Structure formats: C-alpha cells, structure tokens
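Sample entry (341 residues):
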Amino acid sequence: MSNSDSSNVLSQRAGVGGLRLWVLLRLNRWLFTAAVLATVFAVLVGASFLGLTPLRVIVQRHNGTFWIFSAFIGAIITGTSIVVTINQLVLSQELGAVGEQRERMQEAMGFRRDIEDELEEDVTPPEPAAFLYELVDGVEEEATDLERAVAGDHGEELQGKIADYVDDAVENAQVVKDDLESAQFGTFDVIWNALNFNYSRKIYDARKIRAEHDDELSDDAVEEISEMITLLKFFGPAREHFKTLYFQWELINLSRALLYISVPALTAIALFLMYIDGSALPGTTLGVDNLVWVTSAGFVVGIAPFVVFIVYILRIASVAKRTLAMGPFILRESERDEDLG
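Predicted structure, serialized as tokens:
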C-alpha cells in the first residue's frame, strides 16, 4: 500500500518546510507585514551601532533624507496604480453579456446537481465550507461502504489493502471535516482545509487497487471503488472553483489595503521631505540619535505598501504552486511512489 496515510495534511507533506509553509499560508497577513516592517526597523536602528558614518552627518553634507525619501513618492504612486490595474483586469473576467452569465449559472447548477445525485441529497449547502464538508463526508461514507463490500469475501492481502486505504481516507476526512465546521469563506481556513484533503493520492490509490486486483474484486467492491473515485473527482473542480474565488477575494483585499496605506505613506514621506534636515530633532534616545529613530520609522512607512503587496502575493503564489495539478497527478517529490516503473 502507498504511503499516503503519512502525508494527508499539507504541513506533513511539506516536511521540514512546515514552519515556512505556516508563515507563507497561515500567518495573518497583517501580522506578517508588521513582523517584516519591525525587522527592517530594527536593522536600520541597529546599524547605527556599527561605527559607520553617522546619519546626521550624511544628512547635513549630502541632503540624505531627500535622496532616501524622494524616490518613494513615484514608487508608491506607480506601484499602487499598477496593482489596482492588474486587479481590475483579473476581475474583468467576471464581466460578460447575459448569455455568458446564464451559461455560467447553468454550469454551476449542473455541477451541483451531479454532486447531489452522487451523494443522494436533495440540495447541497450554498456556503463553500459546508459544501466541501458534505462532499468530504460523502467520501468518508463511501469509504466505509467499500470496506463492508470486501469484508469476508476477499483474500486477506486485498482486505488489508482496502482497510489501509479506508483508514487513510476516513482519518483525513474527519480531520478536514472538524476544521471545516468553523471555517468561513473570506478567511484562508476554507482553502487551507481544501488543501489538507489529499484527494489526488486517494484517486491514484483507488485506481491502483482496482487495476491490480480486478480479478479478485467482487462486482459490489468494484462498484464501490468506482463511486469512491467519482466522488473524489468532484472534489478537484470544487476546490479549484473556490480557490479561484478566494484569489479574486484576496486581490480585492490587496487593492483596498494598498489604497488605505498609500495616502498615509505619501503624507509621511512629504513631511520628511519638507521639514526634516540635518539640524532637526537634536539629541538621543536610548543611545540612538533621534534622527535615526525618525528616519528609520519613515523608511518603514515608505516601504509598507510594498511589503503588504509581498505578503499577499506570497500566499496566492504558494497556493497556486501547490494546486498546479488537478486529479491523480502529484508534483511533490515527497509523494513519489516507492514502486516506480
């Protein structure tokens, strides 16, 4: 049997990169931004203890604050405009004639009806977390039915493989379901739990069992495996759909955040350019020149829009990288099967 049972949760599949993955995906974006800015501020202030040329001397002789902060104005205005423009281009894909919108609606309703028929339910929930919950719950029930279908009528080796597969599927499903109960779309929780359900491996393992033991499996067992694969194949498009919606949601949040931050940042930079020179803010605080404190803070404010952009794009790019393949394709080396060839 495969090693899938040890690599269902995304953080486990990441191995030693689990902490990095948590920072990239799970850490609150504003806390991430604050941590990056605080680190930059600490480095800038700490550099004043390295015996380098004092900042006040640089400002008095070379008008340092002007050269430091003047470039921020064009960068912030240009960068914010470009990001908002890109966002609008992405969102423009949602615009279309009534015929296109009607076709999208029909496809969405058709997909729901197909899942409802497979789950034998009248109506599936409209909220993404509840919808994924019902789909994963259906996979768990199908896995249990599969185990009952092979009980007693098949060899011990086959029953052992099926038992391992079912245990893996049920355990993964229960973990995801528990987390989806409190998940709300708009936060990253829904996408995180969708990533934690390792459906690709389960499709591969089910198809492999069916192919290797086709002569041994009863008709009922083959039917249950086929239904299991069908449900798992529904999960892929559902996850991709909600991922797309989440990306659009995050791009909107990114645009709003940049618009909120850009005006205060430009105002702070203007204050530095207009009122701060080599004679401003004499004296020291905690052994550091007051000009160093203020200039470092101004620099942090100036790069804040850029850092916000980075932390949002890092999560979007990280999710996109880990969902490049749909279906029974596994791109990570950690998921490589032991019996290649």
